Amino acid sequence: MLLNYHELTMSESKDSPQRQLQFKIICLIIATCFVFSVWLSGVLLTIEPFETPFPGGQFCYKNFARDYVTSMGIGRRLMAEVLEAFPKEEDEAAGISAQERKKMIEDKVYHIYLDNPEDVGGAHTRWMSGVVATDDVEKYCDPLFNKNPKIKREKELHKNEPESEKKASELFEQALYQSIDLPVVDSIAIKFPFSNGFLSGLVFSYKIIPEMRQLAAERGEPGNMSVVVSRCSVEGAECTHYIPLSKGIGFHAGQPSTEDYQRGLPDEGFSLVETLKGGLRVVCPFLKPYLEDTTDEPAAGDNSEL
Question: Which of 140, 145, 149, 236 is the most buried (most CB within 10 A)?
Fold first, then answer.
């Protein structure tokens, strides 16, 4: 008969040496896992920027207004939709493996973050997720645009539902594909660890974006509208983050600057509680009914309808 350590100590009093040892071991394991997760997220690393051109190209994207941690899951959904445009049989005939195709798609998926989460509440921060197609518009963008009629029907069915109560998956399914031409510009870039998890999202929102926007203010053209453009590799466990030093307005797709956008929003700013709620919505979807305030009105200035 097998007995685990917990069963062996069940008869011990809570103040016994065995129980105290068990408690210390459990705490040590939890602390070790937490410290390892923090280390993986890169929170302790120093940002080391370098100058490089941003390549530009046609950007086929969906528009969202939600906490930036959500963009991780949106990126995975986007990659899955792009992958549908490349039948497995055709790739096999061309000698392209499934892993190679996924890597090719991953290299083209970018996120453009318009706001600073320290200034704009997490429920309202704006970003775009899409594919920079460059010379492969027919292969990568056209199949996405072909989905728009179905998306419009889905959007119409749910038009009266508050945006703030929709799950990230619902926002994705109801956001139309659009396109803009991103300019080729000089930029500051950094390479940073990426774990594809909640802590990576927090580090990105509250460490990388504020510091890079500060760099843009110091080195960029006066009056330039700051944005952060990111491309991440799960396999490489690394993201490349760009911040254009000029022509920032060309990355906004007609949307207002953060300052103008902020004027139409409730005065929320940074909220640790809301940030943790956003992370729990991603990590533990079953907790959503307990985290959402169903009395909230749709977010003012929410551009996910565009």
Answer: 140
The tokens for 205 are 């929102």
Angstrom distance (rounded) from CA 114 to CA 252: 7
- Looking at CATH, the fold of the domain delimited by 49-264 is given as Multidrug-efflux Transporter 1 Regulator Bmrr; Chain A (3.20.80)
Quick one: which of 277, 281, 256 has its CA closest to 268? 277
Q: Which of the 8 DSSP states describes residue 233?
A: E
When pLDDT is cut at 50, 70 and 90, the band that residue 293 belongs to is: very low
Q: What is the pLDDT of residue 15?
A: 66
More confident residue, 251 or 238: 251
* Residue whose pair of structure tokens reads 């996405």 in the numeric block: 144
Alpha-carbon separation of residue 25 from 18, 37, 81 (angstroms): 11, 18, 45
Backbone angles phi, psi at 189, to 5 degrees: -135, 155
- pLDDT higher than threshold 60 for residue 2: no
User: Is 0.70 topped by the overall pTM?
Assistant: yes
Read off the amino acid at residue 147: K
CA–CA dist 224, 210 (Å, integer): 16
